[in-house]
Amino acid sequence: MTTRVDLTGAFWRKSSYSNGDGGNCVEVARGVSGVVPVRDSKQSGSGDPVLVFPAGGWGAFMAAVKGGRL
């Protein structure tokens, strides 16, 4: 299923685990209502793929990671 999400107002940030050389990094965006867009930093063009997660699901995922359950 393909759903279009307007990412015009997205503010992208790299993972804190990024090594800074533009390599294998994950970027997460804020500024998009109700969802959390995630992309590969090497694929940051406007037409490149983005995974979009429901905000609640992303929050649960992050809580599980931080809590050591994943």
Task: Please summarize what this structure is.
This protein is α+β, with helices and mostly antiparallel strands. It contains one helix and four strands, in the order ββββα.
Topology:
Layout: E1 11-14, E2 26-30, E3 35-40, E4 51-54, H1 55-66
Antiparallel strand pairs: 1-2, 2-3, 3-4
InterPro entries: DUF397
Pfam families: DUF397
Protein name: DUF397 domain-containing protein
What attributes does this structure have?
alpha+beta, 27% strand, globular, 70 residues, 1 helix, DUF397, 4-stranded antiparallel β-sheet
Query: Rounded to an integer, what's the Rg over CA atoms?
Result: 13 Å
Shape: globular
Mean pLDDT, to the nearest integer, reads 84
State the distance separating the first and last CA atoms: 27 Å
Approximately what portion of the residues adopt beta-strand conformation?
25-35%
Largest sheet: 4 strands, antiparallel
Number of domains: 1
Low-confidence stretches: none
Please give the count of helices: 1
Structural class label = alpha+beta
Order of helix and strand elements from N to C terminus: EEEEH
The helical percent reads 10-25%
